[in-house]
Amino acid sequence: MTGSGSSSGSGCGSPCGACKFLRRKCVQGCVFAPYFCHEQGVTHFAAIHKVFGASNVSKLLTHLPVSDRAEAAVTISYEAQARLHDPIYGCVSHIFALQQQVQF
């Protein structure tokens, strides 16, 4: 976690983006704090919450090794944004578009 001795999970005295979005206190050891900063984290977490739900993402992150959580958070955020843009295919539509570019 970032910052030691702080009462908030984000280590800077303000809640992480996820806790700010969920309107709850960000506690020491918050699973979201290292991956959803105070500034941009709210926007990213809003999409994640809408698509996957906070509880599901929390469970997923806690079951992963700490070394894999940052990459998982970025991937989940990307997929959530893609699902909001294209609810049927999500990020697969980007893959199809790139495959077509390669073919041409």
Question: How does this structure look, described?
Answer:
The chain is an all-alpha fold. The chain has one domain (17-103). Helices cover 57% and strands 0% of the residues. The protein contains five helices and no strands. Helix 2 packs across helix 4 (66-85). It starts with 16 loop residues before the first helix and ends with a helix. The model is unreliable at 1-8 (pLDDT under 50).
Concise synopsis of the structure shown:
This protein is mostly helical. It has one domain.
Primary descriptors:
104 residues, mainly alpha, 5 helices, 0% strand, elongated, disordered N terminus
Provide the succession of SSEs. Answer: HHHHH
Number of helices: 5
Basic shape: elongated
Number of domains: 1
Say how many strands there are: 0
Give the N-to-C terminal Cα separation.
46 Å
Instruction: Report on the biggest sheet.
Output: none
Q: Which range does the strand content fall in?
A: under 5%
Poorly predicted ranges (pLDDT <50, ≥5 residues)? 1-8
Radius of gyration: 16 Å
Q: What's the multimeric state?
A: single chain
Helix content: 55-70%
Helix-and-strand structural type:
mainly alpha
Output mean pLDDT.
85
Helices, strands, pairings?
Elements: H1 17-22, H2 41-51, H3 54-63, H4 66-85, H5 92-103
Helix pairs in contact: 2-4
